[in-house]
Amino acid sequence: MQFGLTETQQMLKHEARRFFPSECPIAEVRRLMETDGAYDAALWRKLTEHGWTGILFDEASGGMGLGLVEMAVAAEEMGRALLPGPYFSTVFVAGALLNALPDGRGALKGICEGRSRATLALLEESACWETGDVGMSLRNGRLNGTKLLVPDAATADLILCVARSRTGQPTCQDRTGGQAELVIAQVCSGAPGVSIRRMPSIDRTRQLYSVTFDDVPAEVLARGDEAQAALDRAMDIATVALVAEMVGGMQRIMELSVEYAKTRKQFGKPIGQFQSVQHQCADMLLLTESSRSAAYYAAYALNEGTADARMAVSVAKAYASEAYREVGNRGIQVHGGMGFTWENDIHLYYRRAKASEIAFGDAAFHRERIARTVVDGRAAQEAAVGSSRSM
Amino acid sequence: MDLNYTDSERAFRDELRAWIENNIPSDWQGRNSAGESMEENFAYLRAWQKRVHQGGWAGVSWPREYGGRGATLIEQVIFTEEMAHAAAPPLANVLGLTLIGPTIIAHGTEEQKQRFLSRILSAEEIWCQGFSEPNAGSDLASLSTEARLEEGHFVVNGHKVWTSFGWAADWCELVARTDASAAKHRGLTVLLVDMRSPGVEVRPLRQMTGESEFNELFFHDVRVPAENVLGAVNDGWNVALGTLMHERATLGAGLHVLYKRQFDRLVDLAQTIRRHGEPVSRDPVIRQKLGQIYAEIEIMRLNQIRSISRVSQNGTPGPEGSLQKLFWSELNQRFQQVAQEVLGPFGQVEKGSEFAFDDGQWAYSYLRARGNTIEAGTSEVQRNIIGHFVLGLPRSY
């Protein structure tokens, strides 16, 4: 038993640690976040040339076919460097979804080769991360409706839209009243009838949009249970990648804060000599390392397909969602007034922490998911062995 | 990264499981204590350790030449976890096995190893630690118990507190000041003291739970032969630090199994206790809190596997043990609070009332958890250690 990186994974980590901050230093992050889409063609080309766009996908699709622990290693370093723009949506969300669909492979090649970027349009007015609330309509091969909080839509070539087919065989009930089958439909973002509007939000390095579809022709990639299963798989992968990214962000805040505490002097000594400051730093380490344990275990469990894999994902996201925010709070506090300035980089991470906390379900969402398994699941287990109590 | 056991780790586990199945005492199941008195209970645990020793499972991590099993750190964790899974009784000489024995192995002379180690394994001789003092708690190095060298003996005078198993102990790992003129960390020496020596007095120290797990020890002109120095004279701080590192690294092993079992029991109770017309387990606030505690127990398990993996690659336990200690102690306090919220007004009812849940265990655990952030180094000291030794911040004291 060994809970640690292999030598090859270590090499990947070193390469990623070198690559992201040197190809996209924080000054470049700041430049890009002021542009619509936070996208840079030259950076994208470099990401492609170095194989990062193909990290998850097998060689037949043009990728490197690495596992999910390797994904976590790469994502952690991206999070540490605060990599901006559509990479996450393209590779870890839309790419993971296409990879989980038998008919999705075609589009993957374009992603691996850097020719296309993609995103997933899931949320609507209810802003619920489960598909039960999806009401967007697909009728006669055409999409109508509005998706909200869609990441990186302005720079995506492909939009994968979760919708309800109103023509196929009705197989599942949705909460919007009618009977309709869940579908994943692929849309070209440049198609007539697609309109994309910015929703300015806290994390400027990864921007959110509303996307309205007005009778837009769409290609159905999957339906019903197959669509739901692919979506579950992709959301699990994306959530683990996100948690790993969050660990990288926490790591960076901690490094900046500890460094500052060693150099900033008040009352004639470094503020890091005061226990009140030292203990904030110790807590940052505890939160970061605990999130890291949870993130890498979830990546491992998902990669190996262990029985507790989905629980591991929820444990990691429930914990890291609060941990990243807390590390951010402590980091800003240690920096004092400097931490509250635009010039200091910590608020960029603090903003990313909030967006990451929300994405794919916040702590409360995942705690409820845990409760469904460990609280309700235990009752079901006991009922099955005939020891249920009178209620 | 590979969380599967290797073939030899699996073989170790299977052999252990088979042994436990055949040997675990049937009259212990579901109990926390055997017999009415502390003495009766301790005699039972001592007999249990003897049986474990005869089976070849005491001191699993110790080298074979000293009667151990030469188990790897991971096998040691397997041992602790399997014992916890089986709800086996604890081992009577736990301090000797996990802290003092390993310190003697690291610093002892060959004579000391021959004299003490096998008797630790068999629970023939029980050990305690004489570290903390009334005026030396977190600032352990300022301790004032003195040991003066006189004609081949150290003469010890002083007062120790928070001594677990003091009342049952035959021997004590004592830290005393042997050079008052040296800097406070440099004048200390570790002595192995026979608790039956004239001048040793043991008094019970009653805790807020009402029990007396701990003792106070008084030393009045206690004569300790000079050959009972562990390590070098005036190098006691390094010797004691080794013990403290073992303490932080191993104290938490297996705890997640106990917490998980308590958690499952709490969930069962949450399904039977009704409030506002439905089981408490349907209350969304309670569900959130149970979900959080589950996540934290799981992360405690993962942190442990990670740190054990790191230690088994780098050798001795380091200051990272402080992270573990901080995590489990603070988690247990949150956990016991959530338990009280699940149980409602009857959660406070103690042992002895038919209205108590689980014979008052939850009321007891709530109070006992309060000590967790103080014993084995306060949370403040753990954060100091992390700040200075792990993060490299300047020393604050």
Please tell me the CATH architecture of the largest domain in chain B by its name. Up-down Bundle
Report how far the terminal alpha carbons of chain A are from each other: 43 Å
Separate helix tally of chain A = 11
Output the structural class of chain B: alpha+beta
Q: What would the principal axes of the Cα set say about the shape of chain B? A: globular
The count of domains of chain A is 3
Q: How would you describe the shape of chain A?
A: globular
| Secondary structure: number of strands of chain A | 10
CATH topology of the largest domain in chain A: Butyryl-CoA Dehydrogenase, subunit A, domain 3
**Helix fraction bin of chain B:** 40-55%
Mean pLDDT of chain B: 92
CATH architecture of the largest domain in chain A: Up-down Bundle
User: Class of the largest domain in chain B, according to the CATH hierarchy?
Assistant: Mainly Alpha
Distance between the termini of chain B: 39 Å
Helix content bin of chain A? 40-55%
